[in-house]
Every structure is written in structure tokens, then in C-alpha cells.
Write the C-alpha cells for this entry.
Amino acid sequence: MVSRRKPSSRVGRRPSTTRGQISDIAIELFAKNGFDSTSVDDIADAAGIARRTFFRYFASKNAVPWGDFDEQLTALRTLLCSLPHDVSLADGIRSALLQFNTFPDDETPVHRQRMELILRNPALQGYSMLMYEGWREVIAQYVAARTDSAPTDHFPRTVGWMVLGVAISAYEQWLTDDELDLASLLSDGTRTLYAGLDTGAGTQGPGAL
């Protein structure tokens, strides 16, 4: 759901600073010192930038865990637009969801830390709702284009909320157990995109559609 760049242990001014780099550094600080105890000045110092420079990249500390979210939304939109025209709506969304949330194994620790912040820190929930709105809009736009409707129509809007729910539920479950596979959770969660709630209620375990 968000940037999955590998964290860097380098401290000091970089030749080219990016939102992703600053976010990775901040995630390390949040994990070490706590979100509330880490200030914007702490992040700027660790990143080797001035406080005023920090605010050129992020509107607030609450935005930092999301990294370069606009870039991620563009990546999701590109994934959806590149899908074959003859793929079913459910298969297309499932494929893009899995690709979008695939990352190297060595990036798992920082990604867990990032998602722990986004999903479990009360101070971030209001800001997260704003970010989810942008994510849902990308899904709704794809659905609207496939169904000759508007993104604000009921069906595309409903699918946007549904897919967001699938993603959040998978991440919440993933965070409860280091042994769980995120891709499997996401794939299992998409069963409702195929046959609705009755299929999910009638299954004996994960994996059956």
C-alpha cells in the first residue's frame, strides 16, 4: 500500500535526497524512539537536511510513514492500465493488488515497521484516511473505465472500498505473525471479488474461491 524502498543506515547529507530516503530514516527513528518522541528536527538531523527542507518534502510528520505516496499511486495506476483488456475485472484487480504489494524479502522488516505505524498508531489514523481516499480513487477509476461509468458512481466506489478492505485486512493479519505470507493473505482476501460474502462464509479454510 505504500513505498517499499529498502532502508538505509547512512546518516548525513545525501547527494540527492528523496522522500523515500527521508521516510526510511524516519521509520528507523520511530522504531527506536517511538513516533511521538521523534520530532521533525530529529528526522531532519538524521537525514542531514535543514528543518525547512524537510517541509519541502512532507507537510507534516504524519505524512512521513507514507513515503512518496503519489509515486506509489502512479505505480498502481500504471499496473492497472497495463492489464490486458480481456482480463476479468476481479482478476485484474487481484493481479494488480498482488504485484503492488510484492517486495524483496530483505525489505520485510522495515515494511512491517511502516505498516505497524500506519495501521496501529492512533495519531496517524486521521491522516491515513486521507491517503486511503487517494488509493480508493485509483481503484474506482479503473473500475469505472471497465464498466463505462464514473469513478463516483456507486459500483466503482463500492469496489474501491472493498479492495481497500481486502488490503488492510491482509496487512493487519500479516502483522500478527511473522510466519504468515502477505501474498497468500491478499489472494485469499480477494475471494469476495469473485462470488461475494456467501463463498467466504462457506469455505473451510483459506485458499478456496
The chain is about 65% helix and 0% strand.
